[in-house]
Design brief:
Elements: H1 5-19, H2 22-31, E1 36-41, H3 46-58, E2 62-64, H4 66-74, E3 83-90, H5 96-106, E4 110-114, H6 116-121, H7 125-134, H8 142-145, H9 150-163, H10 173-179, E5 185-189, H11 202-220, E6 226-228, H12 236-244, E7 249-251, H13 260-263, E8 272-273, H14 280-287, H15 291-313
Helix pairs in contact: 1-14, 3-5, 3-14, 11-12
The structure holds zinc ion.
Length: about 325
């Protein structure tokens, strides 16, 4: 963890939340079975991931698999007390040495949602943009490309792929096959190319969902039933198509607890994000779902307080 201003601020917010009892109260609610903690990572280091797992174990959380959550929904069972679901997005190469190694060491279930094209080609599309921006090839950012039709994003990235070489970032096909053998790992779908699905046309969405599922299944020799929306972006069209392509659960990036009410929408299951490179206490507050709502309410208050000022300026 780097001692950046951002991390120092994050540490201060997390310390405040802990001292004001936010974490304790969230833990008590989890113990009462009010909700399942639904937590997701991208590319944590072994140290970061193990810290989070050890903290959850120390506080007596029980780990649910994606299958367990599906069974709760199917059988309308009450939520288990002090429970947590851990998922990981994208399929980063380090996942094998960090996430999967820890899952095997502590014998705990994790779900890993994998985009297949980066696994086949080695690199996630936004990395080409980041690299091109460093060399001033392009002026637009990843956020800009999230706003354009998918075919335009593909054209731009295809051009950059020919100009830029980036070392492998994603798991290899062989590694995906190997980690899928662990009894603690469930592989889920995360599309072929990691597009912003609502920017795709109908056929593109269908291919992204169906072909990635078939590809993963052919690699691991198991059914792939669970899905996470790239960038957390989706519309009712994607929900309908997930059902048509035989996915049974889908996860968003909306930061909410997984309550009985939220389990009723099985293609819109929320998750709290835990970031790599942040302080451990910030990540505890993130896992417990207290960091993001607090930060959002502070930002909202600042916006409300500064709104009259900006209007006056006009
Ligand atoms: Zn992703």
């Amino acid at each position: 963890m780097e001692p950046t201003i951002r991390n120092i601020l994050g540490w201060c917010i997390a310390s405040l939340l802990i001292s004001l009892g936010y974490v304790k109260r969230a833990k008590l609610r989890a113990m009462a079975g009010d909700f399942i903690l639904s937590v997701y990572f991208h590319n944590p280091t072994l140290k970061e991931f193990e810290f989070c797992i050890k903290w959850l174990l120390k506080h007596k959380f029980q780990f649910l698999s994606l299958h367990d959550v599906e069974q709760l929904i199917i059988h309308k069972k009450p939520l288990p007390r002090s429970s947590v679901l851990i998922t990981v997005d994208d399929g980063w190469a380090l996942n094998k040495e960090a996430v999967v190694a820890i899952a095997n060491k502590y014998k705990l279930p994790v779900g890993i949602f994998i985009s297949t094209e980066p696994v086949e080609e080695g690199v996630f599309w936004w990395s080409y943009l980041d690299e091109a921006r460093k060399s001033a090839f392009v002026s637009f950012s990843k956020e800009d490309l999230k706003e354009v039709p998918n075919k335009d994003r593909i054209n731009i990235i295809d051009t950059l792929k020919h100009k830029i070489k980036i070392p492998r970032q994603a798991l290899t096909v062989e590694q995906v096959k190997a980690i899928a053998q662990s009894p603690y790992v469930t592989i889920g779908g995360h599309t072929l190319t990691h597009p912003i699905l609502p920017n795709c046309d109908y056929q593109q969405v269908y291919d992204e969902l169906r072909l990635s599922k078939l590809k993963l299944e052919s690699w691991i020799g198991k059914e792939v039933k669970y899905f996470a929306y790239p960038n957390g972006s989706y519309s009712s069209r994607e929900i309908d198509m997930l059902a048509d392509t035989n996915y049974t659960l889908a996860f968003t990036t909306e930061p909410h607890y997984l309550t009985a009410k939220r389990l009723e929408n099985k293609y819109q299951l929320p998750r709290f994000e835990v970031y790599q490179g942040r302080t451990n206490i910030e990540n505890i507050c993130r896992m417990l779902g207290v960091y993001q709502p607090f930060k959002n309410s502070v930002l909202k208050t600042i916006e409300l307080l500064t709104k009259p000022l900006s209007r006056e300026k006009d």
